[in-house]
Amino acid sequence: MNLPEQRRETRLDRYFDAYAARTKGLKASAVRSLFAVASRPEVVSLAGGMPNIADLPLGNLADSLADLIRTGGPQVLQYSSAQGEEALREQICEVMSLEGIAAQADDVVISCGSQQALDLVTRTFIEPGDVIVAEGPSYVGAIGVFQSYQAQVVHVAMDEAGLIPEALRQAVLACRAAGRTVKFCYTIPNFNNPTGLRQTVERRKEILAVAETLDLLLIEDNPYGLLALDDGPLPALRSFEAERVIYLGSFSKTFAPGFRIGWAVAPAAVKEKLILAQESATLCPPVFSQFAISRYLATWDWRAQIDRFRVMYRDRRAAMLEGLDAHMPAGASWTRPGGGFFVWLTLPEGLDSQSLLAQAVTNRVAYVPGTGFYADGLGSRNMRLSYCFPPPDQIYEGTRRLGEVLAEAIDVAQTFGLTTPLPLASSNPEPEN
Ligand code: PMP
Predict the structure, then answer these.
(1) Digit-coded pLDDT (tens) for 155-178
(2) Where in the sequence is the domain holding 397, given as residue range(s)?
(3) pTM for the full model?
(4) Whose CA is closest to 363, among 334, 329, 399?
(5) 236 and 287 share a domain?
(6) Could you tell me the sign of the dihedral formed by the alpha carbons of 389, 394, 398, 400, in that order?
(7) How far does residue 379's CA lie from ligand 1's centre (Å)?
(8) Rounded to the nearest whole angstrom, what is the distance from the C-alpha of residue 130 to the centroid of ligand 1?
(9) How far, in Å, is the centroid of ligand 1 from the Cα of 185?
């Protein structure tokens, strides 16, 4: 007998009826479900977004951490405050000053990566059914958090200069006209994950002006701002407007993700809510990690280390762009990022990134299909290619293997006369690169 999907699940999982409604939207991250195949040694993975941290001063770090425990163990291995260590919050203000932010240690709330800051902000603001407007495409992990709180994600288009202010205005007004509550706008102004695009300074000011007229809160998610590869960092949205922006930062890409330390800077009243949310979520963020990062910032030339990362990622980006120029078929297009980790590729008409993945992995190359970066099914003609982890020759080889897969798929499509878009691709917007 053919039972409907829901009944079959009920029979397999005795707790099916007991789960909270908010768990219904949860699904495995597109990236995580790829990890097993993509991490096989023969596969060049252009899928994951893992920073390449092998060049960190690991020996010095090991000595420093051993000394930290030896000399400060009873304190650094103890519980501490929910807001986070004051010394680290002061150092974070110094880091943020590179992007023009003038904040005080008291404005900062430390979190377990910026991922948890996203969670704290969302749980603080979102009732089921509230709308979050988010630039499209957006970071898959943010969409996952928003959906786990039963928010409706409405995407706003981007162009080369980032989120389009007029599209933002229209999306918010349309939601409000339909009686919906829009709680905030989510944006990744620097080297958006997955497109690699960066908002121009002018665009930032226009977005802030629209937010002002709409009385809209902005979430500025910024893990890649200091990883500009061709020039310096741009002023953050938060640097222009303190009261309308919640800024999220992270040490994951500029130092190491394993410490799981990020932070939020929020208007005073919101900050108090975030501290309460942090207290109920974790009691306090990881204390040892905070001391470890604080000592690293105090004793190591972290600016020079970021510069070394930039040189390393510049080489990898060059390998990716050279490879794409050499191996992509006519009709494909892609972004040329000025920083961060990712290139966003748009396939020729008629191809679908999800259905090509199995062939790609068979041909020993992996990527993330574009649909994971939209909440509404768009992105089927896109894929995210990351250049952060494999060495440059491998990245180049990965693009060559991808080129083979696409050439074959185009051959098949032409043989079967599929010159018009497949049904899945028909709702895909034109490439934004
Ligand atoms: N935001 C964006 C845009 C990201 O790309 C990531 C990680 N890939 C995060 C937030 C979360 O990073 P973390 O929790 O390590 O700080």
Answers:
(1) 999 999 999 999 999 999 999 999
(2) 16-56+305-416
(3) 0.92
(4) 399
(5) yes
(6) positive
(7) 20
(8) 23
(9) 17
